[in-house]
Each structure stands twice: as C-alpha cells, then as structure tokens.
Predict the 3D structure of the following.
Amino acid sequence: MRSDAELLTAHADGDKGAFAELVRRHQSRLWAVALRTLGDREEAADALQDALLSAYRNADKFRGEAAVTTWLHRIVVNACLDRVRRKQARPTVPLPESGPGEPAVDTDRDTPMLVRAALQELPAEQRAALILIDVQGFSVADAAEVLGVAEGTVKSRCARGRAKLAVLLGHLRNPSLLDDVS
C-alpha cells in the first residue's frame, strides 16, 4: 500500500486513481472538520468540495514539510474559514426560534443541537481550533500546523472558545438556571 505522500506524488505525476485513493483514506475526517466548523451540511459539502478541488489542482505545490493529512486538513479549514468570511460580508437576520407558542427546550434530547448552535456563536478561528483539538483529537502542534499559527495561538483560541462555550452552555450544567431566567 502506498503512503499518502507517494499517492500525492503519483497524482502530481499523472496517476489518475492516486488522488481518489488519498481522498478515500481521509474523507470522513475531512468531512467531520468541515461539518463541525460550519455547522451546515450544504456549506460543509461545498467547502469540502472547494478544498479537495484546490488540493487536486495544487498537489504539485506540496513541499512535504508537513504530513499530507495535515496539508489536506489545512486546506479544508481554510476553505471553511473563507466561507465564514464571505457569509459575514453578507449577513442574514435569523428568525426568532423561541417565543409565545414555541415548544420548551428538552435539554437532554437537544444537547447536541445546543452545542452545535453554541459552536456557531464562536468566532471562526476559535471554532476551528476547538474542533481540531477537542473534537478531532489533534495535538496542539498538529492543530497549529493545520491552522498556520503558533501553538500559543491555538491554546489561547481554545481557552477563549471554551470560556465562551461555558457561558453559552452553562444552563446545561445547572438546568435550574433556566427557571431563574424566565
């Protein structure tokens, strides 16, 4: 079985099936990063497609300074952050999700949705760092390489993101706080 680096080199040299094999190996993790970063299946699918197309076209520019998987993750994260930036340039106003006549939130059943929604409240850079570290299990060094920033930056983004999530999701730890608010 060829290594990731061998597959990427073979693709750059014209092997038609090499890139498809590389994608098959890493597709599920790349998809998970895109989906968790963007929180929307369609946006994530578009970002992943953009990223893979970019990797396909730029395989000959891979310098081998990082693992191929790190290089692919970096391309996916960048594609996701590009989509977030474009979306922020054209903001939309969401409709209210609660109000008179709306069902109460069942925190046990809705926890995954609440966590996803809270992640979307974070700045994209904090969200990407948290997803790589806390969800995907990347080391700080690997996440720093994927994001193209210093390790200290990854640590501070994670710390700030976790602090914001603690505020946004504090009611899950202490459900009685919901009763106090209303």
